[in-house]
Amino acid sequence: MSEAERLRRWRLLLGPAANELGELDADDRRRDAALTALYGGGGQGIPGESEGKRSGGLSSSAPVLHRWLGDVRTYFPASVVQVMQRDAVERLGLTKLLLEPELLSTVEPDVRLVGTLVSLSRAIPARTRETARLVVRKVVEQIEQRLAERLIAAVTGAIDRSRRTRRPRLSDVDWNATIRANLRNYQPAQRTVVVDQLIGAQRRSRSSALKDVLLLVDQSGSMAESVVYSAVFGATLASLRAVHTRLVVFDTEIADLTEELDDPVDLLFATQLGGGTDINRAMAYAQQHIRRPADTVLVLISDLFEGGVAGELQRRVRDLVASGVTVVVLLALSDSGKPAYDHELAAQLSALGAPAFACTPDLFPDLLATALRKEDVAAWAEAEGIQVGA
Hints:
Layout: H1 3-14, H2 26-39, H3 62-75, H4 78-92, H5 96-99, H6 101-104, H7 111-119, H8 126-160, E1 164-165, H9 175-181, E2 186-187, E3 192-193, E4 200-201, E5 211-218, H10 224-238, E6 243-250, E7 254-256, H11 264-270, H12 279-288, E8 296-301, H13 310-323, E9 326-333, H14 343-351, E10 356-359, H15 364-372, H16 377-383
Parallel strand pairs: 5-6, 5-8, 8-9, 9-10
Antiparallel strand pairs: 1-4, 2-3, 6-7
């Protein structure tokens, strides 16, 4: 990096108080103005702030916000835009940014923004709701494009592995497995494999789900991103004939959203982010809906800050594991780094056979496939470099 570029970056970082570091060109002056409006100008505070404290001066009036959003999108990459938008809401309390349709339509959507919109869903005025739904749907579609195909492949592969047949229909032949099984019949002269056995998947009726997957999702405010990803994964799983999927969200109350799984956007707006947490009560509800323990995977997604009876929760988890249910506890299902969670309860549940760890959305398909195959989930997590139950 050249000396001039280094000084330019320091000037943009420090704000107008560092003018002695050099002059800015026209584009950088717009960048500097956008940063100063949000983060302050080198000690110029707003009323009520102590002297010298850096603070933002972004007005909440719609025209000013609209101009600022336009400049931010023009002069910064999308990843930076998302951070600045979140800071505008969190630092300056600019919820108006999310409640005015003309402003909301100009934001750069991401998972955290969706979480904020869902948490504000009951406060969003009627004229903004359709815009909010469009923003949420855009993010949901981005997640589906990135992860849905991988989830379907991982889950069907895990389940079909135990449903192989040597007399498949032609459309059901697994050609990779068939070629591997017949390599001993390779004919060098003809450069071909003589197939004496076909391997493929056994066709199932639509009503005969082979596995049950129960997603039990904590909808307290800190779990917003996890709720978004859970909704998309739940909807994807619901499209698979081989899996019966149930999605339940909870705080101190319980909402079974299984009937909403055909549309993850409707599902998200049916949640109510915030409030307390009663994991034990939610687990009791889940127990009532387990039909085939040995063929059931229960994924509890929670930071484990239990407001209910922790001892009773541990007893329920012990009973579920003893009955044959595969229980996995995800402390977070997000890309936001290491989550805050109850370390003691996480260690206790892991010791009971319900490994507890945080998981990124990219790893969730492989995690679920491991659980469906009844393999050691804790060993899988450790192989991925994930710390379990600590």
